TrEMBL record:
Signal peptide: none annotated. It comes from Candidatus Thiodictyon syntrophicum. Its cofactor is FMN. It holds the Pfam family Nitroreductase. This is Putative NADH dehydrogenase/NAD(P)H nitroreductase THSYN_20895. Its EC number is 1.-.-.-. Residues 24-160 form the Nitroreductase domain. It is an enzyme of class 1 (oxidoreductase). It comes from the Bacteria. Belongs to the nitroreductase family. HadB/RutE subfamily. One of its GO terms (molecular function) is oxidoreductase activity. The lineage of its organism: Bacteria, Pseudomonadati, Pseudomonadota, Gammaproteobacteria, Chromatiales. Keywords: Flavoprotein, FMN, NAD, NADP, Oxidoreductase.
Length: 197
C-alpha cells in the first residue's frame, strides 16, 4: 500500500518549494529532461489522452527565438535559465486515441463530432500535465519558474507554424538562485478556499 511521503519530501515538493526568477549557472542535461518527461507522462489525463507537448529550449539560439514573444520582465528569466519549456497542447490529439485508449474504438470520431469538447479536453489535460512536470522536476531536485507573460500567437507562429499545437504557459527549469527570492506570498486557509458538504 502507498505510504505518506516524509516531511522532507513534502517540503521539497510543496512547502519550501518556490518559483525561481533567477538561476545558477548549472546545466540541465538531456538525460535529466528525459527522466523528467518519463515521470510526467504517468500523471492521469482524461481517457489517457496525453495532449501536452513539451518543447525544451536549451540552446541560447532556441531561447532567442522565444524572446520577441516575452513580456520584458520575463526576458532575463528565460535567457538565464538552463532550460525553458514551452507547454503546449496538440489540437490533433484524437489521432492517437486508438493507441492511448484502445478499448473505445470510436473515441476519435466522438471528438471530431464535438470540436469544443476536444479543445477543452486538450487544454485542460495539457495544463494538468504541465503541473505534473512541475512536481516531477521538484521531485528530481530541479527548481521551476512557471510563467505566463508572453504572446501566445507569436510563440505559436514561431514554434508551431503548422497550427497543430497551441502554447499554454512556460516553465523555466534549473537550479534556482536562493538569494533572488522574495518572501513567500500568502496562501488562503482551508476555511477560505474549501467547502465541506
Amino acid at each position: 500500500m502507498p505510504q505518506p511521503l516524509d516531511a522532507q519530501a513534502l517540503d521539497q515538493l510543496f512547502r519550501t518549494a518556490r518559483t525561481y526568477p533567477r538561476w545558477q549557472d548549472r546545466p540541465v542535461s538531456e538525460a535529466q529532461l528525459r527522466e523528467l518527461y518519463d515521470l510526467t507522462r504517468f500523471g492521469p489525463t482524461s481517457m489517457n489522452a496525453s495532449p501536452a507537448r513539451f518543447v525544451f529550449l536549451q540552446s541560447a539560439a532556441a531561447k532567442e527565438r522565444l524572446v520577441p514573444a516575452l513580456m520584458e520582465g520575463n526576458v532575463a528569466k528565460v535567457r538565464e535559465a538552463p532550460v525553458t519549456v514551452i507547454l503546449a497542447h496538440d489540437t490533433r490529439f484524437p489521432e492517437l486515441m486508438a493507441e492511448l485508449w484502445p478499448h473505445t474504438p470510436n473515441v476519435a470520431a466522438m471528438f471530431a463530432a464535438d470540436p469544443p469538447w476536444a479543445e477543452m479536453t486538450a487544454f485542460r489535460n495539457s495544463t494538468l500535465q504541465g503541473a505534473y512536470l512541475i512536481l516531477a522536476a521538484r521531485a528530481l531536485g530541479l527548481d521551476v519558474g512557471p510563467m505566463s507573460g508572453f504572446d501566445n500567437a507569436r510563440v505559436d507562429a514561431e514554434f508551431f507554424p503548422d497550427g497543430r499545437c497551441r502554447s499554454n504557459f512556460l516553465i523555466t527549469l534549473g537550479y534556482g538562485e536562493p538569494g533572488a527570492l522574495h518572501p513567500r506570498g500568502p496562501r488562503l486557509s482551508f476555511e477560505r478556499a474549501a467547502t465541506l458538504l
